[in-house]
Specification:
alpha/beta; seven-stranded parallel sheet; 7 strands; globular
């Protein structure tokens, strides 16, 4: 995915606000620390004028961060992107099989897409087109959260985007993943120059600082994705 260069009459990147895509679970987790981290991240986004892009769910950690940010910054601060097939699973009312239509006044704007590929493509596009400090953050979650995180990590390594990627490590939730990265570097599967593509943060404040200070890894592949 590439972006066009700035032209006359269009806003420069520096004039745009930061857009952060948060990958996270549609479940709340068993520890209250996970929902608390979502609320803390929403508060720091509000304080720094950061817009949220997320998976469009109204339950679990997804619903918590979206609902909190909308209550602080208004509906225009949040954009949820959800595949049609996941509506009955990631929105309130899923227990009864009758999901409640998402309320924009509570959760912001929602875009329904055809499939998972469309969701991830649109999420990435929003971040890539955002201003300085834009990037991707992983809060706690399951298989889907990890898959989304690792895809944007891979895209960064391949040179498809240069946005920051931060793992919000709540109560050691991602210790195993970070250990795996070290093992992959030690085993020769990830280069030493690329070990910092993912950055760890342990507080919401650290998340925003890591995105602002993010440095593109020197070991990224210099590939031309504009080719047909």
């Amino acid at each position: 995915m590439t972006t066009a260069s700035n032209t006359a009459g269009l806003p420069s990147e520096a004039s745009k606000g930061a857009v952060v895509c948060v990958f996270c679970g549609s479940s709340p987790g068993t520890s209250p620390a996970h929902l608390a981290a979502a609320r803390a991240l929403a508060h720091i986004f509000h304080a720094n004028g950061i817009s949220l892009v997320y998976g469009g769910g109204s339950v679990g950690i997804m619903g918590e961060i979206a609902r909190t940010l909308v209550s602080l910054s208004g509906p225009s601060s949040v954009h949820g992107i959800i595949p049609e097939a996941l509506i009955e699973f990631e929105q309130q009312g899923r227990e009864t099989g009758k999901p409640t239509p998402i309320d924009a006044s509570l959760y912001g704007r929602t875009t329904i897409v055809k499939d998972m590929h469309g969701r991830k493509h649109m999420m990435a596009k929003c971040v890539i087109e955002g201003g300085p400090g834009s990037g991707f953050v992983a809060l706690s979650g399951g298989y889907g959260t990890l898959e989304e995180l690792m895809e944007v990590v891979t895209w960064n390594q391949l040179g498809i985007h240069g946005r920051g990627i931060v793992v919000f490590n709540v109560d050691g939730f991602y210790d195993g993943l970070l250990m795996w990265v070290r093992a992959a570097v030690g085993g020769g599967f990830v280069s030493e120059a690329n070990k910092g593509i993912m950055v760890e943060a342990k507080t919401a404040e650290e998340v925003v600082k890591a995105l602002r200070d993010y440095k593109v890894s020197e070991g990224r592949f210099k590939l031309n994705w504009a080719l047909n």
